[in-house]
Amino acid sequence: MKSVFQLFCVLLLTSFAFVSCSNDDDDYNFPDEITNEIEYNGKSYEITSVTQIFFGDYYETGTNNIDLEIETEGFGNLSFELFVSLNSTKLVSGTYTSSNSRKAGTIHDGSDEKYNEEANISGAIKIEVSGNTYTIYLDCIYEGKAIRGSYKGTLEYEVELDED
Q: How far apart are CA 39 and CA 135, in angstroms?
């Protein structure tokens, strides 16, 4: 009886080796290569600089607000509002998904019930941080059109805290 129990335990533990959790990144089509470009409406645009702007707990939701500003050659600027925990003053590694919740790990989707504004963004931004180097992957719908891209490099950093 003891050997049957041991065999059962071994089989049970072995079965865990073949089970894996789903990866949220599987839901998105992040670029495979880092090109320092965005693709929008069938055209590619070079990313010239990326800035993260720290606003603190601007909305008083218990999360810090960091705007991700992406400047491009020929397309203009993209701005995304990302949220991190209160103990973070810079963007952290993770996949940020669109939501109007303003919770950590989300991108604000642009909707605002107070001002009757509809969402203008959906999808995700994946960020990997290694020291001062950021790798950013975009897979979003921005104002109704697909936008994908990638960037690897340092980010400029600004702080804009409400003085009230």
A: 16
